[in-house]
């Protein structure tokens, strides 16, 4: 049931989800004559957001460093406070030493990004607009 | 809000597990029902679950207070997949964060899910519903939901700690002592969560409003049901 915003030849379910196997602009089939941009608008927007966030983190880190602030997590601050009140030791379920924590976060976020991107494409990927209709 | 193992007594964490289960059971029912009604629900559930996993582990520095904290993502999840379903995905997220990232604990999943998945999700969802009922624009309702849900999460987390550990100190005083550990850092992050929630929901609505039945219009669900029957 194509809506006004979708082309009539895109394969849609009653709720508007693309059926598995239906074609999208970023699907595996690419028109031989079509041009693929290095940076499409989505990539540009995401890179811009990422750089703004990274610059903010860098700036905040430099500021905290110059003012001798520890930059620790509030979870840790409050867990330490609670331990002091209760006279007990707190501990995470697993304690990752050194760079292992960075590794675990990177692996988790890499695959999380892939999964989000995969489902985002299923839900919000633009349907192929210039698919040729077979001549009758 | 990631309370670690060893802080809460077995009675306390057991009780929070019990309370959380009361929300997880209807959450599983909500997921089962909405999967039947809406074909887009499964990918939305997967996407929001993973997004909550990343967002609630994303520590951002706040230079004013000299410490780092993270947003929650559960207000956005509650708007998209429902408040009770958010309790379910939040419990799964907290489990994986505990066993793989050393974030939080296993005995405290009940308490942490109550603060982040249940109170954070439901308070955000209610803010969204009230403001949308007052015909507020989507970005404003979503932004307020993100802000309220974020702060409510940390208020609840400090309440959980205070309730268990206040001893002879008045509960309210101990609650505020714990909250002051979170609050100053969390306030700017709640504003960031408001902006993020508003932006993501507005983008989703702009691209495919038809995929968000129940979020935007009540009648959409009825239309969908009748479409599904016809198919």
From TrEMBL, chain A:
Region described as Disordered: 1-30
Biased segments, Polar residues type: 1-13, 21-30
Membrane-crossing segments per the record: 42-60
This protein's UniProt keywords: Membrane, Transmembrane, Transmembrane helix
Protein's name according to its UniProt entry: Predicted membrane protein
Species annotation: Acididesulfobacillus acetoxydans
UniProtKB/TrEMBL annotation, chain B:
Pathway(s) served: Cofactor biosynthesis; adenosylcobalamin biosynthesis
GO MF annotation list: cobalt ion transmembrane transporter activity
Membrane-spanning residues: 44-64, 76-100, 106-126, 138-155, 175-201
Membrane topology annotation: Multi-pass membrane protein
Record flagged with keyword Flavoprotein: no
Single biological process term from Gene Ontology: cobalamin biosynthetic process
GO cellular component assignments: ATP-binding cassette (ABC) transporter complex
This protein's UniProt keywords: Cell membrane, Cobalamin biosynthesis, Cobalt, Cobalt transport, Ion transport, Membrane, Signal, Transmembrane, Transmembrane helix, Transport
Alphabetical list of Pfam families matching this protein: CbiM (PF01891)
Gene3D superfamilies assigned to the protein according to its UniProt record, in alphabetical order: 1.10.1760.20
Record has Transmembrane as a keyword: yes
Cellular compartments annotated: Cell membrane
Subunit annotation: Forms an energy-coupling factor (ECF) transporter complex composed of an ATP-binding protein (A component, CbiO), a transmembrane protein (T component, CbiQ) and 2 possible substrate-capture proteins (S components, CbiM and CbiN) of unknown stoichimetry.
Classification via NCBIfam families: PRK08319.1
Role this protein plays: Part of the energy-coupling factor (ECF) transporter complex CbiMNOQ involved in cobalt import.
Family: Belongs to the CbiM family.
The protein's name in its UniProt record: Cobalt transport protein CbiM
Species of provenance: Acididesulfobacillus acetoxydans
Chain's gene name: cbiM
């Amino acid at each position: 049931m194509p809506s006004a915003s979708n082309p009539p030849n895109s394969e849609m379910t009653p709720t508007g989800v693309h059926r598995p196997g239906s074609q999208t602009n970023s699907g595996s089939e690419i028109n031989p004559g079509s041009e693929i941009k290095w940076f499409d608008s989505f990539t540009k927007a995401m890179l811009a957001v990422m750089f703004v966030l990274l610059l903010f983190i860098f700036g905040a880190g430099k500021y905290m460093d110059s003012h001798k602030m520890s930059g620790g997590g509030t979870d840790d601050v409050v867990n330490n406070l609670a331990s002091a009140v209760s006279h007990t030791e707190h501990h995470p379920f697993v304690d990752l030493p050194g760079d292992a924590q960075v590794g675990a976060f990177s692996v988790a976020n890499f695959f999380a990004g892939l999964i989000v991107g995969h489902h985002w494409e299923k839900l919000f990927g633009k349907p192929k607009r210039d698919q040729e209709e077979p001549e009758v | 809000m990631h309370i670690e193992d060893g802080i809460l007594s077995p009675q306390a964490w057991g009780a929070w597990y019990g309370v959380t289960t009361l929300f997880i059971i209807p959450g599983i029912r909500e997921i089962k029902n909405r999967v039947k009604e809406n074909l887009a629900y499964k990918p939305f559930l997967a996407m929001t679950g993973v997004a909550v996993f990343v967002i609630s582990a994303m520590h951002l520095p706040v230079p004013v207070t000299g410490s780092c904290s993270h947003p929650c993502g559960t207000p956005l999840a509650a708007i998209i997949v429902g408040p009770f379903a958010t309790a379910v995905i939040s419990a799964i997220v907290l489990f994986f964060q505990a066993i793989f990232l050393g974030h939080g604990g296993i005995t405290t999943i009940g308490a942490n899910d109550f603060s982040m998945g249940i109170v954070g999700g439901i308070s955000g969802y209610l803010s969204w519903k009230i403001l949308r009922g007052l015909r507020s624009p989507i970005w404003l309702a979503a932004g307020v939901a993100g802000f309220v849900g974020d702060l409510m999460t940390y208020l609840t987390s400090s309440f959980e700690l205070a309730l268990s550990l206040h001893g002879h100190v008045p509960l309210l005083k101990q609650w505020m002592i714990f909250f002051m550990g979170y609050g100053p850092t969390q306030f700017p992050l709640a504003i960031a969560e408001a902006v993020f929630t508003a932006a993501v929901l507005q983008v989703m609505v702009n691209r495919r409003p038809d995929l968000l039945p129940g979020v935007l219009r009540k009648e959409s669900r009825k239309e969908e049901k009748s479409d599904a029957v016809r198919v």
